[in-house]
Amino acid sequence: MTGIYLHIPFCKRLCHYCDFYSATALTLKGAVLATMERELQCLADFVPDRDAATIYIGGGTPSLCTPGELGSLLGAVHRTWDTSAVAETTLEANPDDLTPAYLGELRALGIDRLSIGVQSFIDRDLRLMNRRHDAAAAIRAVGDAQRAGFDNLTIDLIYGIPGMSTAEWEANLGQALALGVQHISAYHLTIEEGTFFGRLAREGRLQPVPDETSEKQYALLHDRLTGAGFEHYEISNFALPGRRAVHNSSYWNGTPYVGAGPSAHSFNGTERRWNVANNRAYLDRFAGDTYFETERLTATDRYNEYLMTRLRTADGLRATDLAARFGAPKLQEFLGSARPLLDRGLLLCDDGDRYRIGHDRFLVSDTIIAELFATG
Ligand code: SF4
Asked: The domain containing residue 51 runs over which residues?
C-alpha cells in the first residue's frame, strides 16, 4: 500500500513561524495543479504498489483550492492508483475557508477527514503568529464541519507561544476538548531561521519561552488530553480510540509514500526523492528530463530512520521486528546501545521485546534516540 500526498504550495499570507514551502502569489496556481496531476502518473513507477492506502492534501493551504480544482486532482489520483481501499482522505484547511457550502462540496468529493489549522483560541496569539482567522472563526468552522457530516476532525494547536501563560494554554485545551473533535495535534512553537519569527529572535525582539514553561505546558497537554480519553500515540499527536491519523502513522511505520507538488517528498523503502521548493522552478524542471532530486538510503540510514520514527511513537519498537528488518547483529548493536539508556530510565522495556520512550521524556526524545544511532 502507498500513501499519496499532494502539496498545495499557496497561502493567502504567511504565518510568522512557518517554514513550509508556500507562496502568496497565486498566479501559478493553475499551472502547478495541472503539473501535479501529470506528476502523479510519473510517481506511480517509483513505488512497488499502486494500491493507495491514504490520500492527504496538505500544504500550504489546500482550502484555497476550489472544489473543481480539488476534484480534478483527486480524479488524477483515482485514474492512476487503485483507491478502492483508501482508509482516509484528508484535507488541511484554514478555518476562514470552511463555509457550509464549501464543506458540502468537500464531502461530495469524498474527503472524509479535515485537519483544521486552529493553532490557538486566543486572538492575541493568532495576531502575533499572523494567522488570518480569529478564535470565533475556528470554533464556527469546527461546528460547521460537524454539521456538514464530518465525524473525523483533527485540529492543530501550538503551545510555547511567547506571551501565552500556562493558564491560557490550559483554557485552550479546555476549548479544544469542548469542540468534540476526534484528534488533536499539538506542537511546541519552534523559531526557525528564515521565518519572520527567526528574524525577530535574531534582533532580540522575540524570546523563546523558558524550558520550564515548555515542560509545564507539555505536561498539561498530556494530562488534560489523556484525562479526556485521548491516546497520546506520538510526540505531538493525540487520538480518541480508533482515530489515529492513518496517513501520518504510515510515515512512522515505514510505509512507502509518494508526494506530488513543489517541495513534496516520496519514499519507496530504499530511495527518497524530492521536488524543488519553488513553484517556478518546479514547473521548469518538470518540463526537463529529471525534475526531482534523489538519494539512495544506505542500510545505516534506514536503520537510523527506523529508530527515529518508531521511538517517537508511544508504541516504540519491537526487538523482534528490528531483528527481522535489519538482522541479528544489528539487534545486538541496538541492545548494547540501549542498556545505558535503560539503566538511566530514558528508555523503557515493557515485556523484554518492546522498547519505547515514556511520554514524560518525549520532549527530549531526539537526544535519547541520537544515542542509539549507528554510525557506519
Ligand atoms: S497557513 Fe499553514 S502553510 Fe501557510 S504559512 Fe500558515 S502555517 Fe504555513
From this structure: 2-251
191, 303: one domain: no
Q: How far is CA 196 from CA 18, 60, 113, 172, in A?
A: 8, 17, 31, 24
State which ligand 1 atom lies nearest to the alpha carbon of 119.
Answer: 7
The answer to the question of residue 275 being in a domain is no
**61 CB near ligand 1 (under 6 Å):** yes
Question: 213-268 pLDDT, tens per residue?
Answer: 999 999 999 999 999 999 999 999 999 999 999 999 888 888 899 999 999 999 99
C-alpha of residue 76 to centroid of ligand 1, in Å: 25
Distance separating alpha carbons of residues 331 and 335, to the nearest angstrom: 6
CATH number at residue 318: 1.10.10.10
| Secondary structure (DSSP) of 270-316 | SEEEEE-S-HHHHHHHHTSS--EEEEEPPHHHHHHHHHHHHTTBTT-
pTM for the complete prediction?
0.96
Which atom of ligand 1 is least distant from the CA of 130? 6
